[in-house]
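Final report, closing paragraph on structural work. Over the funding period we assembled a curated collection of sequence-structure pairs, and we close with a single example.
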Amino acid sequence: MRCFHSCWSLSAPRSLVSMVVLLGLFAVEIAHAEEVRWFRYTSCDPGLSSFSTQQQQDPFRVACGALGTYYFGPGDFESSGSCSSASHGDEVPALYLSQDDPRFLPSGAEWFPCKSGGCFGRRSQPWVAVVDWNQGHGWSVAGLIREVAGSGVDLVLFPLERTSGLAAADGVSDLDVLIQLCAVAEAAYQAPQDLPLAVNMSFGRLLDPSVSQSAGLVGRWAFQDEIGRVLDHLSGLGIQLVAAAGNHAELLFPASHSKVMSVGSVDIEHWDSTGSAQRSWQTPTAADTLLPAYGLYLDAGSGSHWPVPPGSSYASAFATGWLAGYLVDQGMSATQLGMHSGASLGFEVNSTTYQLTLDGQPLSGSALSGAVGLLKRALEHPSSVCPGLATAPVSVTPTSVTPTLPTDSADELAADRNLPLPNTRPCVPCHGRVDDDGLEIDLSSSDGLPTGWDLDALYLMIGSSYYQISDSTVLADFVDGDLVALYLEDVGSITAGTPVALVYDIGIGTSDEFWDATPIHMHP
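Its predicted structure, as stored:
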């Protein structure tokens, strides 16, 4: 078996606004977003000539299906026509992630799942809408959906990209999310007999608790209402909405919307040792559904497997793929199945059966081969999917400590600065192994941290205990991505089901600091 690297090489100038994409993409400089004004029309369409702006910028028109038509412009954008808008507002749109770049593909890119978006396209089959980046993140999310759902489900990409020329010099904002969800609504409006089975949204941002649900809200997070309006509409058509719950114990938007099924990570260690599903420590308690989000290996062809970076992006994709494949096999829609607001998918595993559940009830016939294959690979001993290490691990003895971690998680730092969600994980190790003297962590699929980012501290978390790794040579190799494997001695007993993770204290520039973590699937 071959197990290819799952990370991107990074290089970016040191900056207070240099951020890294969720799940291992790359760092770019981000300009702060600018104010955007919008008008939505339902009973009439005023046309482009009915708008004016001192910046001489043409308005950006977006058809949104049965919800009407949006016109977007800069902050001084004005309507001079007689057509009355159904809603309007101003906002500095909240940012999500910086776009990843086609120059940065993971090592072993020739085996990357859904390389170059190759699994997107229509073949007149039932389909799933994938709102995501048309680069590595979107391709790997689609690769997981395709592997689980099978070839009987088409995937259509609605790319997260700056299509309007508004809001930010780089990066994706609420405006861009709204535009792509409107594109889904428009597709449904134009072909009501050919609705998508589901919409997968493997991304998110923190909510601002001060946001109301009133139309026409003026403020930084006003597009949240407009996105919610489109989500309500799509759900009302019987389309299942699925989104990533988040990776820092706080529920993200749009997963927090009442019509969206939020999907978080199951605690794979607890599942491996007991056979029962409970949320992982980094998963929000409000997550509707739990599926594996780390310890996964996608089929990359020719007997190779791609280790999935940890995160609820892939749990969301797992849920979407399994549900869509099951619906196609059964010849039904999500509504006919009984999906509803707050519905919870799950899975059951015993010695003979792998099956999907809905609100705790098993769904007969749901043992799709793709889903079963991924679950089995997650549970198997890692030697079945990753080779043994050619390089001996570096041994260190960490010190038991009570750490003082930064106040902000990656999510909180992004929300405070209205910046893309940072992520500094050196991606997912293939696995960890435990013996009587300590544990070995495989870092052969990991790259280093971005240039200009400081690793202020590195910890091993075992349950509620922390051990600090202080060896300067080891830390330097870790930051540079040159550490193939690490053997940690004298860290106490690791019992079955205990969560294990690498935890990072990261500094950017002189003032920004946050924590992040990589969960590790441990094996005896």
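Residues 4-31, 211-219 have pLDDT under 50 and may be disordered. The CA atoms of residues 60 and 165 lie 9 Å apart. We thank the funder for supporting this effort.
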